Amino acid sequence: MAKDKDKEQKQGAKPKQAGGDRAAQKAAQQQQQAKAQPKKDAPKPAPPPKAEAPQVPAPPARLAMYYRDKVVPELTQKFGYKSVMQVPRIKKITLNMGVGETTTDKKVLDNAVADMTKIAGQKPVVTKSRKSIANFKIRANFPVGCMVTLRGARMYEFFDRLVNIAMPRIRDFRGVSNRAFDGRGNYSLGVKEQIIFPEIEYDKIDVLRGMDIAITTTAKTDDEARALLSAFRFPFKH
C-alpha cells in the first residue's frame, strides 16, 4: 500500500513541474520580446515659456507726418478747401522696368527683379507680353519686364529717397519737367540709370537699366497735383 501511495505522489508531482517549466518559458519569452522591441522615447519636457519682448509699433514715415502737419494747411489756404478730405494726396507710386534682353538671356530678368526689390523694398511682379510680335522675337505670355506698386508707408519712404537722395545724384541734373502730367493729376517720370539709388552697388550690377516712375494722386487738375508735389519740394524746372 505504501508503495502505491509513493507512485501516486510522484505521478502527481510530474505535471506540476511541467506546468512550472511552461510558465518560466513564457516569462523568458516575454522578457526577450520586451528587449527586442524598441523603447519608446520618453516625452520631452516642454521648454519654459520665453518672455515676450515689448512690441513697439514702427514710427510713421517722415513725409506722412510732413504732409499732415505742413502740406494740408498750406493747400487748404491756397485753394480754399472746406474739408480736409478735399486736399489732394499721393495715392500710389508705380515702378515699371522693361527688360527686352530676356529674349536672348533669361538671367537678365532675375537681375532686374533683384535690383527693383532693393530699390522698392518690395518684391515686384513679372510682366508678360499680351501678344506675339515676330519682329521682336516675342511670343505671347513671354516675360518682358517687372513692376511694383507702393502704397502707404513704403510709398512715402520711397518718395523721400527719390526726392532727397536719388535725384541729386543724377548727372547734370537741372530739374524735372513740370508738364509731364496726364491732365488728371498724375505725374510720370523716367530714370535712365538705377545706380542713382544708394541701395544699388555699382560694382555688382551687370548693366545699366532705366525705369518709369508714375505718381498717382487724388488731385482733379494738374495745377492741384503740381502744387501738391511742389509742397514736397519736388525739383521742378522753373
Describe this structure in words.
There is one protein chain. Helices cover 39% and strands 14% of the residues. The chain is extended. By secondary structure, it is an alpha+beta fold. It is built from 5 helices and 5 strands, in the order ααβαββαββα. The protein has a 5-stranded antiparallel β-sheet with strand order 2-3-1-5-4.
Short description:
The chain is α+β, with helices and mostly antiparallel strands. The chain contains 5 helices and 5 strands; from the N terminus they run ααβαββαββα.
Task: Outline the fold blueprint.
Elements: H1 2-36, H2 62-79, E1 90-98, H3 107-120, E2 125-128, E3 143-150, H4 152-166, E4 187-191, E5 211-217, H5 222-231
Antiparallel strand pairs: 1-3, 1-5, 2-3, 4-5
Summarize the amount of helix as a percent range.
25-40%
Strand order, main sheet: write it out. Answer: 2-3-1-5-4
Strand content: 5-15%
The coarse silhouette is extended
| Contiguous runs where pLDDT drops below 50 for at least 5 residues | none
Distance between the termini: 142 Å
Instruction: Give the topology string: H per helix, E per strand.
Output: HHEHEEHEEH
CA gyration radius, whole angstroms: 39 Å
Structural class: alpha+beta
**How confident overall, as mean pLDDT?**
82
Strand segment count: 5
Number of helices, where a helix is a run of at least 4 consecutive DSSP H or I residues: 5
For the report, how would you describe the main beta sheet?
5 strands, antiparallel
